[in-house]
Design brief:
The chain is α+β, with helices and mostly antiparallel strands. It has helices at about 1-25, 30-55, 105-120, and strands at about 55-60, 70-75, 80-85, 95-100, 125, 135. It has two domains: about 1-55; about 60-135, no CATH class. It is built from three helices and six strands; from the N terminus they run H-H-E-E-E-E-H-E-E.
């Protein structure tokens, strides 16, 4: 919610500043507003965006697809929200998200984590038909077969060969 307020306020501030620049720059008071207003506007926008930068992004504000994103961390407060840190394919840095509370999501996350613990160790997200992210465990990759090669014995030194 906060990100939308800051985005809207930034857009209004830039729009208002553009109007002052266009219609009042020929007056001395307009020039003063342009000269003083620009650094003040830049400082306020920087402060607002740095405040938002460390907070979790609402999953509704994500414009990229979360399909196949690897879940790195999950935290929740029952009845309040779910916080996720995920690494998306093609993006080097992890992203921090906030989801609305969903008992179904948490049950699926715990189930996927248990399955991943027995198998591949990786939980990823998939978007369901309603557009909501749902976790699932990646299937375990088969272990490579051990080929000892022709004529090479797997026996320890001093033991008879197999």
């Amino acid at each position: 919610m906060m990100i939308y307020v800051i985005l809207g306020a930034s857009a209004l501030a830039v729009g208002g500043y553009a109007l002052v620049c266009l219609y009042r720059s020929h007056l001395p008071s307009g020039r003063m507003a342009v000269v003083v207003g620009f650094p003040v506007l830049c400082a306020l926008m920087f402060a607002a965006w740095s405040e938002v930068a460390g907070r979790p992004k609402p999953v509704e504000a994500e414009w990229r697809s979360l399909n196949g994103a690897t879940v790195l961390f999950v935290d929740y407060r029952e009845g309040v929200a779910i916080w996720l840190v995920v690494r998306m394919a093609g993006v080097s840095d992890p992203v921090y998200y906030r989801l609305p509370w969903s008992k179904q999501f948490m049950e699926k996350t715990i189930e996927a984590a248990m399955t991943a613990g027995d198998g591949s160790g990786t939980v990823t997200l998939d978007i369901d038909a309603a557009g909501d992210p749902m976790p699932y465990a990646l299937p375990q990759e088969p272990e490579p077969t051990k080929d000892t090669g022709a004529g090479i014995s797997a026996a320890r030194p001093g033991e008879p060969g197999v």
